[in-house]
Amino acid sequence: MIIIMKHKASENQIEAVRIRIEKMGCKIHLSQGEEQTILGVIGDVRLVDDEQIGRMDGVDRLVRILRPFKLSSREFHPKDTVIKVGKIKIGGNQIVVMSGPCAVESREQLMETALAVKNAGAHLLRGGAFKPRSSPYSFQGLGEEGLRLLAEARELTGLPVVTEVMEPQMVPMVAEYADVIQIGTRNMQNYSLLQAVGKIKHPILLKRGMMSTIEELLMSAEYILSNGNENVMLCERGIRTFEPYTRNTLDISAVPVLKQLSHLPVIVDPSHATGKWDLVDPVSRASIAAGADGLIIEVHPRPEEAMSDGAQSLKPEKFKNLMIALKPIAEAVGRSL
Amino acid sequence: MIIIMKHKASENQIEAVRIRIEKMGCKIHLSQGEEQTILGVIGDVRLVDDEQIGRMDGVDRLVRILRPFKLSSREFHPKDTVIKVGKIKIGGNQIVVMSGPCAVESREQLMETALAVKNAGAHLLRGGAFKPRSSPYSFQGLGEEGLRLLAEARELTGLPVVTEVMEPQMVPMVAEYADVIQIGTRNMQNYSLLQAVGKIKHPILLKRGMMSTIEELLMSAEYILSNGNENVMLCERGIRTFEPYTRNTLDISAVPVLKQLSHLPVIVDPSHATGKWDLVDPVSRASIAAGADGLIIEVHPRPEEAMSDGAQSLKPEKFKNLMIALKPIAEAVGRSL
Amino acid sequence: MIIIMKHKASENQIEAVRIRIEKMGCKIHLSQGEEQTILGVIGDVRLVDDEQIGRMDGVDRLVRILRPFKLSSREFHPKDTVIKVGKIKIGGNQIVVMSGPCAVESREQLMETALAVKNAGAHLLRGGAFKPRSSPYSFQGLGEEGLRLLAEARELTGLPVVTEVMEPQMVPMVAEYADVIQIGTRNMQNYSLLQAVGKIKHPILLKRGMMSTIEELLMSAEYILSNGNENVMLCERGIRTFEPYTRNTLDISAVPVLKQLSHLPVIVDPSHATGKWDLVDPVSRASIAAGADGLIIEVHPRPEEAMSDGAQSLKPEKFKNLMIALKPIAEAVGRSL
Amino acid sequence: MIIIMKHKASENQIEAVRIRIEKMGCKIHLSQGEEQTILGVIGDVRLVDDEQIGRMDGVDRLVRILRPFKLSSREFHPKDTVIKVGKIKIGGNQIVVMSGPCAVESREQLMETALAVKNAGAHLLRGGAFKPRSSPYSFQGLGEEGLRLLAEARELTGLPVVTEVMEPQMVPMVAEYADVIQIGTRNMQNYSLLQAVGKIKHPILLKRGMMSTIEELLMSAEYILSNGNENVMLCERGIRTFEPYTRNTLDISAVPVLKQLSHLPVIVDPSHATGKWDLVDPVSRASIAAGADGLIIEVHPRPEEAMSDGAQSLKPEKFKNLMIALKPIAEAVGRSL
């Protein structure tokens, strides 16, 4: 960390900064130029509070040299994390596809979809039992009944189940039924919830907030990791921009950036990113070409009857074709599907 | 609601839409032009699921004529809601100022600040006991001890207390100490939390998500109102944009827009919107001139020692000057301070 | 086009709208519901001015059924446009790669780069002679001398040349030297310039404004096409968002969206989109997988000495490896490179 | 300027940076810590090319201490610039209001509006003769005929005239008729145009690009100032965000920020910022309260017939009321109107 003093900072001001920094357990290395004085901070700079120092008299700016995340960083943990869910390995050579309906609506709908995605080659079954909806008047999911149906679908197909949890006290119940627990985009900075899933051992699929930076996503992963759960997958699902044509704007560069900065597996959600079923195919191809470790894709047997997100769900037939189309892309980047 | 059919929609497709709409409890009024067919939906269109209909064969687009919120809308409730907190009325002629430290750090810091803001003319005392922080390594607040200190500061100054709640199961405890309960920007779409505060009677200060539209803010208010709590204040606190100079970009137009669309009081948070103490003064003036019913402003006796948000906190002296400067602006728009 | 009248619109107001619409050369089809009246506009609705009608008393909203662009739309022109530049076909089965330095700096630098990209398999040579720079104190390009060097490099390598034009009166001079003329991101809505390049026959590479929607890009293409030049390529080069890690955010979904909405070839610029050379490879792969017809990539023999955009330029060796890596991706989507 | 070397930078790499910096005419001050080496650059750091240095082996990052603009900065020129247009002073104690139609449509429309805004107390007359429109099929303005009508309206009312120029070669013609020349939002980075208006002496109203940062706006002002024209006004007119309710999002904080960073007068355009006439009043009040030196407001006698931007134009009666309402706000911030 570097502290840049103002042009006319006095010796007293510099001395006050030195004292404060030393109280925080670090040391100062002084570099006095003709026009400005720069203080290099030596020691465990994570102990230094930027805002406190930044407000001191005579201080112009602070520059952090090191990134604020640690457990999620590749620097700290160079080797790729590979997460096991039953026999499936996420983050290894194989591209993993999670698929199923946005919301569990009925036994019939779920079993039909589960069998279809299994048959098309999906590796995990996704489905929402608790649905966060912007309107209090919209369908909010089947709740625990939905979880039971997901467990039943797992029995039927052998596919492990991914489902979302929305509040800390629900974590034990959801964990009882699910194999992978999803934190949704609106909860990426719900710190109580992050802490709660940090205390279990289930793999967590952490979705990027639709208006969160890459660094904030890694800081949220840090909450889970620092509570003891090392099984975190990062999910890019589109960010909010001024472009109205798609529901969100998929930040495709985030895939290689996350792979550079972190050792955690990276999953892409082309369904929520685009909001349009006919863009799911090209965007899925692009995601794998960019280095994603997996995809999470919405499939519904009759999208026009879906109680949530019908516009972005693929029909089983289209999903099957997509799985076939993705295979050569995976191979072109040296991976399997 | 209007359903616009595709250019070449068949009669069978139109018929299928009609049947689906009637199942949902509404009726169709057909308008067949040379180039396109338009279906007007008559009845309680809130029962119609846009996504289901939008995915049907032959359907091009849906257009909703009515807004999706109701209890929070001025159309439904033309008269301004005025919320009473002790003797203070929020949403009436008087501009209300809530002030205090970002986080409660110690008894000394809180009492000193509380007395200073009381002395400067603030109407409520704000202070965080539970702090949502992007880093798990940052100070997270004093917890229940912070709540106790806030209650003590209320005793000392007579100022009602505003403080944040972060998870549903904490609502009863926070409600025991606080007069007004704040939902923070990262929790605006934490629906479990919205439902929980909808079931109590305390006034709620609902902060706009930094990533949320005005309509989404009103939909989140709708969650609280539809659970039975009518005492909701809306808080504009800046949105995330590409401009890096300020922490967020205050959406000043949101103030008159919210006053047009809704009957709920509108509060502005210039401290979080700008992130810089020297912008708090001009932005506070602008907010009152634009029609805000109140302000929430961070004050700290020694900002350079603040454990959170020091860069945007005013010193008590500056806050006092601001209160004096705001008076003529309030009068210029026909209000008092 | 549909005109939605307000809830309580009077018959006189409806009649006034009818008269205005008929003056504009269209007709009205009235659909009177219980709660609202809807007017369908029949005829050439491009003659109707939305803003005029939208401001009339009693009018709530207008909804356009047809898109505002025509010559650039696939509806109007279903077959892909294939643009010939010498023997190169852009928009056909082959992926086309344009490569070279950001700015022409010297004969030595340009010839060295031109030979290197030719050798690696690039199809066109890019290079800026006039450089738009945000600071008046930065290097602004070699001007006409740069154009002469580009022509010389074409002689040397046989590669057609792409270069940018910045003002209408420079179009004839740039057209004399260049094979393809680029309109930069800051000039996407410089309508005088669009009209000027609409009057020549050279292929135009139209870059999306960093602040522009997909629809606005197509409207700007419409300016060129409606002036008589049918040889327009659209270039996605990243949009401005709140994410600071990359220079811009590549809107990968824009690739398939543009291919759906328009018949014009789509090129991606991974260098400007990311601003970081080590992201150019994964983002290039993703672009081809998403369906792009070509790439424009910055290469510099010594990026650390580049006078512009060194941070995002590939060294020739890296570019060569990229070209090899892209081949199997192109084949996986049924194309050649 | 500070150069932060990578953790493991070698002595050779540090030496290479030193040599390069010295070639650029600056010197290096070395500060070698245990974990990192920091190089302070001494001398005229504007000569140093960030990108070149940033790409050198062993370099981690560069941090500029000084801002990249100079002539427009308050540091360089502490006293407020006051621009005279006839008897009007812009940037002094008086708030200046520029008003008139978006586009000049006819003699009748312009004279009627000019008299009305003069009568209501406006200080300058605005009106577009050349209109940048996103569609090539929309009304593009009356051209030189529009300029002649503006000059005639000046004769009639005594109000100086503000109008836009769109291309470099039109500058002399527009300058012949206009008193103040406007650079529109889409041309803020049209550097040829900025240079052209930098060579005349007319006051320039430079509008912020709808997706440009505050720093970029000041850099564009720098283009004009460095070409010799010191009469530049900065105009905040809203930026593009994800919020769809208003046409743009007025960045109200930009007003005090620009006043802090620069000595140039700051004007706000509430009409384009909001796109809705009924928001012009509250947003105008807010702008003055925030410290703006003036406003530019669209007025049309019959907005429902306006050929451009009718939705955001005030009727003369409303404009008159607004001028009355603004007076006490101006006084509340110690200014006159």
Structure description:
The structure is a homotetramer of 337-residue chains. By secondary structure, chain A is an alpha/beta fold. Chain A folds into two domains: 62 residues, Alpha-Beta Plaits (2-Layer Sandwich), CATH 3.30.70; 250 residues, TIM Barrel. Helix content of chain A is 35%, strand content 18%. Chain A has eleven helices and 14 strands. The first copy, chain A, has an eight-stranded parallel barrel, surrounded by seven helices. In chain A, α3 packs parallel to α11, α6 packs across α7 and α10 runs parallel beside α11. The longest helix of chain A has 17 residues. Chain A is elongated and about 75 Å long. Chains C and D meet through α2, α6 and α7 of C and α2, α6 and α7 of D.
Keywords:
homotetramer, 337 residues, alpha/beta, Alpha-Beta Plaits, TIM Barrel, 8-stranded parallel beta barrel, 4-stranded antiparallel beta sheet, 11 helices, 18% strand, elongated
